[in-house]
Design goal:
Four copies of one chain form a homotetramer. The first copy, chain A, is of the alpha/beta class and about 350 residues long. Chain A folds into two domains: about 90 residues, Aspartate Aminotransferase, domain 1; about 240 residues, Type I PLP-dependent aspartate aminotransferase-like (Major domain) (Aspartate Aminotransferase, domain 2). The first copy, chain A, is built from 14 helices and twelve strands. A seven-stranded mixed β-sheet of chain A has the order 2-8-7-6-5-3-4, sandwiched between helices. Chain A has a three-stranded antiparallel β-sheet with strand order 9-12-11. In chain A, helix 7 links the parallel strand 5 and strand 6. Chains C and D meet through helix 1, helix 3 and helix 10 of C and helix 1, helix 3 and helix 10 of D.
């Protein structure tokens, strides 16, 4: 029997969402998110993030969300600051550049950026006599948790936010796996903190129990004022928009978003402890649903016979970096089986 | 009780598809369309269109499909020919131009273009001494059925295809409502004809029984060779790609695609006859699921109290053009109720 | 001996400018327009247009000027309104669309747009329920004189400007041949009027005595605040920027701009009268340096043996529309020779 | 008296070119490079580079040349490999990204890239399971000489060219200062070698004696087949195209290009030796017209009182990197004065 730890988007949707989709399937509503389910989801999210004047928009997937938001926030002569390892810099097939904007890279520390690096980048930029010939840093992109599963402390977020405010550039947080970060061991950041410490962020659904869908929260209401036609222009407007509303209504009812997040993190922690016990220390200090290990190739090859996981970068000569991912859908019995197989 | 004839994307998905989505919901598969359901759907579609060497890709919605395909087909200095009324020219928020390409407009005849207009456009273009300063016609976009519900005859398609071949430009068919066109009364074009008479087309799912999803069929296999990263770049790659595969597997099993199409067309024909009987002749000669009438404003206002339909353009002073749309989800009892209400 | 009436950019530069270029050739100045000649030209132009707070930028050519200005004025979801015959819509190889923006076309009346058409376009746009799926009219482009040599009256400009102010969209005037418009018989618009009745315009140099160069005047100083990096991004920043400054300093000293403009218009009027006397009425009511006639093909062919002019569109079956253009460089003796040849 | 060593584009044009521009100023020729001077220049360049089937196009400046060429060479899903320090990556205000393409950076060694780094980048790219989600390396950009004045040996160019051929991606050489590289002490690369070892390159005119202008040489004639409308679309088509032709005709007559190059390099070598003698070793091993030194701030400040040079990056705390540049226009007496001033 094959075990699946490749990604967090392998199964369909959480049972509570599935039931709602089935129950409402034959209803007829207006399209493009002008329906009541979407309106309800917007209200629930505004309440959850603690921002009455926030605007909330629903898109289908992460790459399209990033490119649409960033395209809307930047002026033509500006680029977006991001960690070297940021998803927009690596794994979106150049979607940001396809909109005309350069990704300006910062050093990454287990996927995170440092406030002082942002400060230095911007102050050095304006200290350079030739800066008018260079791409101006027009916003900052970070991910929470990062592509390596790490999270920012509240203090780190505050510092980053302060630098952005000082230089008057928006801070945008990619929350493709937001729930898994909020549920992480040792996390001291709340959903409300996120909303208070950035200008725009999105709450990932695809990887957290929804079939698909991401909820963009515009906290700074002076931004993205013409977002609807931009969503359409980016091909990111779902005809049957209520499907997005329905799913987020579910996720933000009865603590579903928290429940699915906590489950995945618990499963990841079990896996992490098992690898450590076996002598394989994680190569990244992640307390979220992604765990990274450097495995000897022969061990890795054996394990891969009936366990699914991903190589993280090219195969090494003797050892290779791999990633194990849990999700809302990960069954505890599968985790136990995986742990047993570590001992072959 | 409210009746809904606004659009063909108001309900969820056909029961046969819903059952499949539910049945497979907890399965874990690889993402991005590399799963077996998608593979199966590809095979079914290749068989249905009669092209062994076709390539098939699944995207989420129509606008993103159009912009991704067109972006992939054109060189930087080229634009896309389309009817003045073409969806890409009117209702996609400039998605084509956002990719850098001009939409070059042709006269429309109830939404259709004429082969001779295409021929004239291109031959006049190259006859103009200044053509190197103008946007070269690099492909032709047509829709089947058109935005007005009309369809091309086989002869018309052949003529258009010939002009495109003569000038060596790809012909792309937007099939957002393809099934409703194939099922239209008087239609003499088969799905295989479509595949033989163009270079690329797509089979619409969103409006024909799927929750969402469009299947791009690349008939001319010398084109769109690097389509996967382009889909990703356009934000059009669904993480849980199997959802698309599953739905198209269903649509192309047990004639589901034909059945849902025929039903909608039958319902539309009943509506059409009722309006005609009542003295309101259609303003467009459509035999598909969209019907257009010019209604006196007071009659329209009364009708709109408990019947949903769309204005087609701005409200007129005395009369207004309106659109009634049926779909796979339209219930015959609702059509009968509508017809009854025409007689208030 | 061949006579040249094809275009107004066939000769080099006016003798007064040539002298200055030669006199200063070996001076060493900083690049990119930060030199004193450019500063001087900016001051002269601000004075000439009567706007102390205007900003002035120098670019090399017309197409790059149009695309850089329009790219800077529009938001991503917006397009630019222009006459069907507008240069940006026809003869710039899709430069506007290459920046991501649709050209939204208006009817043209000898190349001009009507205020009421602008008003109708915008009010119909916002009256349409589906406008959020369409490209918003974000600015208006007009040319003075137009591509057909016609000019707006002051009243017409005021009306157009009012509509733009009402809808809060910038008005941009392409002044590639501005001087020839200001010098036209019957013109009641001054350079200061132009500056007062639009938000941004440019003063064409290439066609009016300079070797090359266009001066963008930003009258509404809330716009185009980051124009310098945008000029660079568009590849429109001349390294030896002082060449532009020097030329415009010349053009705006000793009334050179007016003198070259008036000369060309005088020559064009002589040609116009000669054609009329010969029985060929102009097909466009132009009093500027471009004159359009419909000539019988045999007459045209004979004439073309030793006179240069351009076909305006494709050759007709029996008659063809042609264009005769004069410039600052047109010699009166050549005009007289042309007139003589009309009588062969 | 102020001395100027800031850049190589501070003066106008070489006397031989100036004379030609003056002599031909009042001639009337067709526009857009269809004139005889341009034709002549094309022939001279084809002969000089030793490629009968090359195509040659003239543009105005470097940034527009780079973005037009790169835009023409890449497919939409591809990016351009370049040194971290490459001009397109640093000092073109994001012109490449504005066309939709990512700049993929390689380590730089005094501005140069290594063939093995190119090989590793590409082979690692295709070894990565997720490469279809990443920007494909579609071409390589290098500069000769580099932004730091260094040059590639023939062996290095051959190795780089081999890697590009192996992976079937075009190699494009930015020759903004090509002549200064060819004239460098120790250079073993000829103009013909350049043409044989890349697919496209350009011969810089702006910095080598012309008023402005760059000559693109398409060595691989299967590429850039529709370059003319792309030049227009990029706003890079000069109306009075003959000005470019004339200047390059001059540069490639009577060895002018070599003469101006050699002069500048000789002057730079004198400066280099003087700094070395004074104890300031160059921080880059450049034998071309750009020389870089790390100077103590107080020394630098004193020197800057009557000598012009540029900071290379932000001012350091105690020492700052500076750049001295010579050109065809640098007078030997000024170099001698500079050297004298090093001894204050």
């Amino acid at each position: 029997m094959k075990l699946y730890f490749e990604t967090d988007y392998m199964a369909g949707t959480h049972s509570e969402i599935l039931e709602r989709l089935v129950a409402t399937n034959y209803e007829e509503t207006v399209g493009y998110g002008c329906d009541q389910y979407t309106q309800k989801a917007v209200e629930l999210i505004k309440k959850a993030v603690g921002k009455d004047n926030a605007r909330v928009h629903f898109l289908v997937g992460g790459t399209q969300t990033n490119s649409t938001v960033i395209d809307g926030l930047l002026s033509r002569h500006e680029g977006v600051l991001a960690a070297e390892s940021g998803h927009i810099n690596v794994h979106e097939s150049g979607a940001i550049e396809a909109c005309g904007h350069k990704v300006l890279t910062l050093p990454e520390y287990e996927g995170k950026v440092k406030a002082e690096d942002v400060e230095n980048y911007i102050s050095n930029f304006y200290a350079d006599d030739t800066y008018l010939h260079m791409v101006a840093p027009g916003m900052l992109y970070i991910s929470f948790p990062t592509e390596y599963g790490t999270i920012y402390t509240k203090k780190e977020l505050q510092d980053i936010h302060s630098v952005c405010k000082k230089w008057n550039i928006p801070l945008y947080i990619d929350g493709a796996r937001l729930g898994y970060g909020l549920a992480a061991e040792g996390n001291d950041v709340s959903l409300q903190d996120i909303a208070n410490l950035c200008d725009v962020f999105y709450i990932g659904g695809t990887k957290l129990g929804a079939l698909f869908g991401e909820a963009v929260v515009v906290c700074n209401d002076s931004l993205l004022k013409n977002f609807f036609p931009l969503i359409k222009q980016h091909g990111a407007l779902l005809a049957k928009g209520r499907l997005l509303g329905l799913q987020f209504e579910c996720l933000f009812s009865n603590n579903l978003y928290e429940r699915v997040s906590r489950h995945a993190v618990d499963m990841a922690m079990k896996i992490k402890q098992a690898f450590i016990a076996k002598g394989y220390n994680p190569v990244v200090n992640s307390n979220t649903n992604q765990q990274f290990f450097l495995l000897p190739n022969d061990f890795m090859d054996k394990l891969s016979e009936d366990v699914g996981f991903e190589l993280w970068g090219p195969r090494g000569e003797k050892e290779t970096k791999v990633r194990f991912v849990t999700s809302w859908a990960t069954k505890e019995e599968d985790v136990d089986l995986l742990i047993k197989r570590l001992n072959f």
